[in-house]
Structures are given as C-alpha cells and as structure tokens.
Amino acid sequence: MTFVALAQTVASGILTGGVYAMVGIGLSLIFGVMRIVNFAHGEFMAVGMYIAFALFRALHVDPYLSLLAVAPAGFLLGAGVERFLIAPIQNAAEHSLILMTVGIGLILSNALLLIFGAHPETIYTSYSTRTVRILSVTLSVPLLVSFALTVAVVAALFVVLTRTDLGRAIRGAAQNRDAAELQGVDTRFIQTAVFGIGIVLSMAAGVLLLPALYVFPTVGGIFTLKAFVVTVLGGMGSIVGAIWGGLLLGVVESVAAGLGATGYRDAFGLVAFLRVLLVRPAGLFGTSRV
After folding, report:
1. DSSP assigned state of 263
2. CA-CA 20 to 30 A from 12: which of 4, 6, 67, 129?
C-alpha cells in the first residue's frame, strides 16, 4: 500500500470512527451512571435510521435536518424505556437487566421488520456521491459532514457535563451514587435523563451514517457489537476512552478494507479489540468515571 493510499484509508477510517465514537459514548455514559450494559443500543440506532429514512421518503426531509426530530423522539423513547421497563427491575439480579435490554432489542428489530419489511433500503441525496479533495486525500462529503456534526455533538456533551449543574450531577452519580444523594442529587431523575441522552446519541449516530450505508431491520445487532467493542476498548464508563476506541475501530476496519479484506473488516476490528485487551485489560482509559 502506497503512502497516499494509506493516508486515504486512515482518513476514511477516522471519519467513520468518529461516528462509531458517538455510539460508544452513549453506551459508555449509560454504563458509567447506571452500571448496566444496554444490549439494545444498536437497535435504538436502527430506529433513528428508519425515522430519518421515513421522513426522507415521505416528506423529502434531508437526513441531517431530520436530527431535529430524531433527537427529541430519542430522548422520549429512552426516558420512557428506562422509567417503565428498566427502573422497576433495577435492583433485581444482574442477568435480569441483561435479559430486559436484549428483549427490548428483539422487540425493536422485529417491529422495524414488520413495518418496513426485510429488504435493505438506502437514500440518495444530491451529495451522496460527492467528494472533496484535500491535498492528495479524497474524502466523502456525507462522511465529512457526519464527522463534523459528531464533533459538534460531542463538544456540546462535554460542555453539558463540565459546565452545567446537570453535568455535575451526572458525574457525581457516576462516581458515587450514595454520596450524590447525600448532596441532594435526584439520582432517579439522573438515571432517566442519562438513559435518554445515551439513546439520543445512538439514534443520532444512525442518522449520520444513513447517507453512507444501507439500512435494514437487523442492522442494530452489528452496531450493538461495535458499540460494545468501542466502549470496552476505551474503558467501561470513559467518554474520552470511547472517542479513542471509536477512532481506533474505524481506522482498523478501513485499513482492512484497503488491504482487500473488505469481507473481514469486522473480524479485523475484533482482533484489534482482543489485542488491546491482552495489553490493557481495563481498556485504553480504564476507569468507570464519566
């Protein structure tokens, strides 16, 4: 592989990895505060993709503009699921929460299958195949826009977590729930809000990937695995770690495709995941703090 081809491959991987990072951040945020792994995370992402797809087909709404509808819908859906399905069994055995999230994922994927059918769908916009050239590297416009919006969303999340009372309450609940309650933090509300925010990030990532991917009802299972890999690579509960984990996974998959192993790109990502864990079992940023 020539230097130009390698630069092209790495650049494409970084753009894709940025969106992977957003998916991982949502899962990591939920785990950091609630100490549960949401095995329906990818299915929520698929719901976001299909909402944007339906708006595009029915009303010709640009997929990026559909974020204005997907974000509030995602928060309401996430908050409702947490309040009515997860909260009642929060103190039950750990496997109960795992089975609940797996069940939610199955319900969501089968609902999408019932509504939209089993055939893969895609959308075509005026910029779907456009590219821009920076030096000797050619970049996809949809991926470039998606990466820019991802950076903006993640930056806004960091501002919320570090500069607002809500963010300080979230970080306090993640570090020590009992101590946060002694300081007057309503941890019940915080958990609902965090789950809602995590689902918004997942569904928004789906929308950002929609112009560059096919969408089908079971696509969520693939991205649940990717979100889990990103989260564990970076360190469970670490947002910074999720960012680096997403970028690493995107680059590894892109390099694998550049070497001609397109059909095995997911396998290359899993191999990189195992290699990192062999060196750092706790992940790149092994901490449970948000």
Report:
1. G
2. 67
